[in-house]
Design a protein that fits this description.
The structure is a homodimer.
Chain A lengths: L3 E5 L4 H12 L4 E5 L12 H5 L20 H8 L2 E3 L2 E7 L4 E6 L5 E5 L2 E4 L3 E3 L12 E2 L4 H11 L6 E5 L3 H12 L3 E5 L11 H13 L3 E3 L4 E6 L5 E6 L2 E4 L2 E4 L3 E3 L2 H5 L23 E3 L6 E3 L4 E3 L4 H15 L13 E5 L2 E7 L2 H6 L4 E9 L10 E9 L5 E8 L4 H12 L4 H5 L15 H13 L5 E2 L1 H9 L4 E5 L3 H6 L5 E3 L2 H4 L11 E5 L4 H12 L5 E4 L15
Parallel strand pairs in A: 1-2, 1-7, 2-3, 7-18, 9-16, 10-11, 10-16, 11-12, 26-30, 27-28, 27-29, 29-30
Antiparallel strand pairs in A: 4-5, 5-6, 8-17, 13-14, 14-15, 19-20, 21-22, 22-25, 23-24, 24-25
Chain lengths: 562, 562
């Protein structure tokens, strides 16, 4: 008899662990227990199924050549037994058995194991909002949830949909719901959406959503949902007024599903996930955990965190499966990488934001580069805004954020790799990345951002973020805003209250630039402003800053014909 | 008086060095000497100007906001003096002076320097082929060369164009010339094009070019060019017959322009470029060199090399400019990164190919992953084939190659960063890269490739490249080719002589699979073949290989209705 491996959970980490264990141990008896009907489906693809971009739900649960990943597939192709519609109710660690119950028949059985892998995933958080039990107040987790959204949204049957929560799922769903012809209002309790980004970056995303007709209500608390006589939701009552709606998506967050593990007495980490070591082993050496239910170790923060992502789940599943099958493999932890698409904006980040680093007491500098993602002369070049965060003491890259119409994901993935290796921004600036006009500028935006970070660390450049500048302006600070672009660019749109001195004229017009006031120079990106700042430094000015990212990264009001 | 910095060369590294020096030293007197009219243009953009994709040559020499980078721009905006149409004729190292001559007036002058930066670039190699002086036999280096191509190609005036040389410029120009409505024949002396790639990868590119109507003649030597009565080329006489043509592009390679440096007694490296240390300093501490004329240090090979790329030139120019201005900066060397687009194929590589590693005596394994660049259910997913090369002894990633319709550049850039950091394939497999369906699979093709490499290094998987298999087939070796796909897939196109046993049936049909012969299993990518190989290993088979990359990476003939 082979080794008995039981896997609880059949969506992402579970099937991956089972398949890996099977490849390593051809004689093991491997069983997957899954409480739902469907297995091994692409949960991250649900918004695209709702939008109709993915037309058939089967596409989310078939192999690339169209074979359905059902119990028969697992049995025949993978040599793995699957019990679906079967709930694991108890883990008996002493007897090394899992008690399971068929959700249809109620029949129970005990599955003995040599090694157990827990992959019970995560669940949407249910906020204690009165009226959340009304019909048409939905969450999004399973394929069946997506089916309900499709039913409701079909044919524009819902003129107005409210999304409660401005996080990742809420943002992805704005595009999906808009694509179905419905209007969308996002309601977020915090002062801005996508708080995984620094405010100067998240405000750019907010602007893009607004430009696509999405209403974004920040600093707004949902008080209750109101229903009609049929028990269907008809309005969301918020701290900012009442919004008539016909459908609500509750997306205020996810939390790891750890009830079973907790009841079995396994250690739970501070972040709420099941504690695991780098072998994905829980506090019981015969039990592994992988995927959304397991705590992640974030090597940038140095602490445990919750990060429900299919990519991490698959990698962890592979490690758990290897170790359960008797091989040795380790999972090195996460960088906190996240990417999402919201309409035409690509958004990606990893590591620490300036805000997070500040909270952790880590002195950092940040650098923002704004540029086309390929040469401006190459058709299809699109702008990106890339922000790097570097630790002052070590010059190490510890965070990256990118937003824009262009390809930010490539730059963020390279930055993640550099962060993982502990590279300094100096090393990032020296990276010999590929170059050809269809793909990037000769000085890629990532290299430019790293060089800006170096200039700041070397004391050559002082930056000012858009949000800092806006706060100064709103506080009525007496500063000089110096637009060093051309008169045409200035005319087309400038920050209100700024003075035009084109870069070529700066050397000759120093008399117009005060020496006793704070000067913030800006241009389209920030290159000309940086050259202006160097000219002013050469002329003895000591209080000159460059607006990080220039107009390309400016999320606030502009004035035409200034 | 400020420090005197003279820069010879005004295209890429030169202007970058001058601009950087200016920013660091506001009082320096900085002069650029350029023998041609035009400055600071995007040489890498010339194929796209020839194809008409970039319509106006001005776009190649203006800033992103449309300002021409001419001597007036440099004087006014950058504070840099430019002498164009001025040839540097002698470097007098003793007197620290450069003698220059205006190419129009013949007037000479001597420019004193404290620091000199040589950025004289590279020139196309002129092969000693009889008839190369005929009209319509062109090279491509300057904007004026591109103008000549446009004149000749306009309105389909050249029905057939020969490209001599299957390297980077030749390949990029196949698309540009085809876009002008001309037929293209590529003539390459070696047995294949793009020898920077391993043959299994370069053959995929060749197939793609042929599918677009390009004629590719490999192992073919050009004997001479024949002209008509007007001195225009009319035919290329090759070792494989005579080809009637009306235009020829000679693109057999580039070589660094080092005459001036050599005459000044500066050390020249083994690769033919000017020797520089990591500060970009030549053998004369007051003279720097940067860009195509300077030897690169390749940190993968550990030797000097020639790599004429705008990205490297810009980085080196920045370092040379910093050091010339009295700051300290270093250039860490190159990974040999190269990218190009040929029709709809994206191609990128860095580090060592298997062929190069073998020549250097480094034992390696290679891993090929073939997969869509995003989930198969997401619209617009396109296939990529990615090859990783890892050193056996250290498990370090030392090479990467990617080709395909999908996004290979991102994966190669991440691999380059990992190589630069000295990561093992185990570390690459653990990278927490971004994940969302619009951008990648949950297990990205790079992670999959790294895991394949690990399986091979751990002795779990034995691979066989397409070219190895083809050689065995052609040698008439008695092997079993095992197609583990579905009957439909097999029917649609299989490797001739293969036997169909779908993966799900392998366990039950072991009797049909010989134990005493070499078995090569394959499927669409290589995942199912790998599972089949593990089933066979579990059943005691000892001579089973997996076809690297499967049918997605198979460049040879297939058979329908097998």
């Amino acid at each position: 008899m082979g080794k008995k491996i039981v896997v609880i959970g059949g969506v992402a980490a579970g099937p991956k662990a089972a398949a890996r264990a099977r490849r390593l141990d051809p004689t093991a008896e491997i069983t997957i227990v899954e409480k739902d009907e469907l297995l091994s489906y692409a949960g991250c693809g649900l918004p695209y199924y709702i939008s109709g971009m993915v037309q058939d739900r089967r596409q989310l649960m078939t192999t690339p050549v169209g074979v359905m990943r059902d119990p028969t597939f697992f049995a025949k192709v993978k040599g793995i037994k699957v019990l679906n519609r079967t709930m694991a109710t108890t883990i008996d660690r002493k007897a090394k058995e899992v008690e399971v119950r068929n959700v249809d028949t109620g029949a129970t059985q005990r599955l003995p194991y040599d090694k157990l892998i827990i992959a019970t995933g995560a669940e949407p958080v249910e906020p204690p909002i009165p009226g959340k039990e009304l019909e048409n107040v939905l969450q999004l987790k399973r394929v069946e949830d997506a089916d309900r959204f499709r039913e409701h949204l079909q044919g524009g049957a819902c003129p107005m949909v409210a999304i409660v929560g401005g996080g990742l799922i809420g943002m992805e769903m704005t595009e999906a719901i808009t694509a179905c012809g419905s209007g969308v209002t996002v309601i977020e309790m915090l002062p801005r959406v996508l708080t995984m980004l620094d405010p100067d970056m998240s405000l750019l995303v907010e602007n893009h959503m607004r430009s696509r007709g999405v209403k974004v209500l920040t600093s707004t608390r949902v008080e209750r949902f109101e229903g009609d006589e049929n028990g269907k939701v008809k309005a969301v009552v918020t701290s900012n007024g009442t919004i008539p709606v016909s459908l609500v998506l509750l997306a205020i967050g996810m939390r790891p599903n750890v009830t079973l593990a907790k009841e079995a007495g396994l250690l739970i980490g501070a972040s709420g996930g099941i504690y695991v070591n780098e072998y994905m082993q829980t506090s019981d050496p015969n039990i592994y955990a992988a995927g959304d239910c397991a705590e992640k170790s974030c090597f940038v923060r140095g602490t445990g965190c919750f990060l429900p992502l299919g990519s991490v789940a698959n990698k962890e599943g592979r490690v758990a499966g290897s170790n359960a099958a008797g091989h040795v493999d380790r999972f090195p932890g996460v960088a906190g990488a996240t990417a999402l698409k919201v309409f035409d904006y690509n958004i990606a980040r990893a590591g620490l934001s300036v805000q997070q680093a500040t909270e952790l007491g880590i002195p950092v500098i940040s650098a923002v580069a704004a540029s086309p993602d390929k040469p401006h002369y190459y058709p299809g070049a699109k702008p990106v805004v890339l922000k790097l965060i570097a630790e002052k003491a070590t010059r190490r890259l510890i965070g990256v954020e990118g937003v824009g119409l262009g390809d930010v994901v490539r730059r963020v993935d390279v930055a993640i790799t550099a962060m993982t290796a502990g590279m300094t921004v100096d090393q990032v600036a020296g990276l010999d990345l590929t170059y050809a006009p269809p793909y990037s500028e000769a000085m890629d935006v990532l290299i430019v951002a790293a060089n800006i970070a170096r200039n700041k660390l070397d004391g050559l450049m002082r930056g000012c973020t858009s949000t800092e500048l806006q706060a100064s302006r709103q506080a009525g600070e007496d500063l000089m805003l110096l637009d060093v672009r051309s008169p045409d660019e200035h005319q087309a749109g400038a920050i209100p209250g700024s003075t035009l001195v084109p870069l070529g004229a700066v050397r000759g017009r120093l008399a117009e630039i005060p020496r006793d006031r704070r000067v913030v120079a800006y241009c389209k990106s920030s290159l000309r402003a940086w050259e202006a700042a160097r000219i002013l430094a050469g002329a003895g000015y000591t209080n000159v800053e460059v607006l990080d990212g220039g107009m390309m990264a400016w999320p606030f009001e502009t004035q035409q014909g200034a």
